[in-house]
Amino acid sequence: MKAKKFFAAAAGAAMAFTLAACSGGGAGSTEEPTDGSTAGGGEVSEGGLVGVAMPTQTSERWIADGEAVESGLTELGYEVELQFANDDIPTQSQQIDQMITNGVEALIIAAIDGTALAPQLEAAAAADIPVISYDRLIRDSENVDFYVTFDNYNVGVQQATSLLVGLGVLNADGSEGDAEGPFNIELFAGSLDDNNAHFFYAGAMDTLEPYMEDGTLTVPSNQTDIEQTNILRWQQETAQKRMEDLLTSTYTGGDTELHGVLSPYDGLSRGIITALQNAGYGPSIADGLPVVSGQDAEIASVKLIADGVQFSTIFKDTRKLAAEAVTATDAYLSGGEPTANDTETYDNGVKVVPSFLLESDIIYTDNIQELLVDSGYWTAEEVESGVAE
């Protein structure tokens, strides 16, 4: 599986640190596994047993994350119980309960709902099991020991910046572009039960609002609050339906033309693009398809970017994220504590969780080779086919 080579490429980076966005058909979609979970078996190694709870197998991103974490822990001598919950909250709760029963010595959790795991976290704390929140902050509990993630506010800034670049308002280097607008845009946010969605949207809106205030950007639907724009569980089909509804309610039977869409995840982007193409936009940006942003550099969307269909995505190198989770786990189980580089930002409602933040990059057509292919994240053949090998 691709994640195996992901961790191998990142392991060296992790040692150097010394610890200093869904499924569905549509544009660029590929067949993705939807079966249940996998678990490590056999006797527990000298390193101990670590439970890894991932939200779903319907996104290639989470499959890669889970396998990369498992690979990294195995290389350090740990036994791993890896579970995928298929975006079902009770399933994830039961999986974590079972991990605790099975005697895990640490938990790495990418929560489906960041507020739904209180009983499991209490049980972990009672058993002195450290809990590492992976990418999505677990909220409303004091029993979260560490958080590994990206600078999620900045990810939102980058999403909005890429939209402005696509419209010509900004140049890729951040300087002012020649386009003056006004441009009509629509806004999409992630799932409200994912703490990251709020950071993404805050960063994006703080970036876009000055241009909305001076008239460069307008939102014809007037749907600008996250409560109006969110997509539950980051589902591609839900985003496609919302885009279809917006086109019907706001862009039919008049002179209003849509120029751009803020999308916080590639799966949503593909659903949005499918709705736009079905409504007669496109088929590519050069043919009038609105500029659509994204996140996660999923291979189906990377191909769409290379083909001039999707404009951009945010590359969060999850090899490095997995490596940080492994390093943090090893620190706890070796009798120490991981080193945080942020101890102020991530308040989960009960405590500020010490965190390690990683940086992300904007992917456009002209830097796919440099950032994704040359780094070994995707191969040129994968980019051309849009399918992970």
Automatic annotation (TrEMBL):
Quote the InterPro entries the UniProt record gives. Answer: Bact_Solute-Bind_Prot2, ChvE-like, Peripla_BP_I, SBP_2_dom
Q: Does the keyword Signal apply?
A: yes
Compositional bias segments (type: Gly residues) = 38-48
Stretches that traverse the bilayer: none
- Where in or outside the cell is it found? Cell envelope
Q: CDD domains attached here?
A: PBP1_ChvE
| Principal cellular location given in the protein's record | other
Does Phosphoprotein show up as a keyword for this record? no
Alphabetically list the UniProt keywords.
Signal
- Residues of the region (Disordered) are 24-48
Q: Which residues form the signal peptide?
A: 1-20
**A matching Pfam family:** Peripla_BP_4
Q: Where is the Periplasmic binding protein domain?
A: 50-336
Q: What is this protein called?
A: Sugar ABC transporter substrate-binding protein
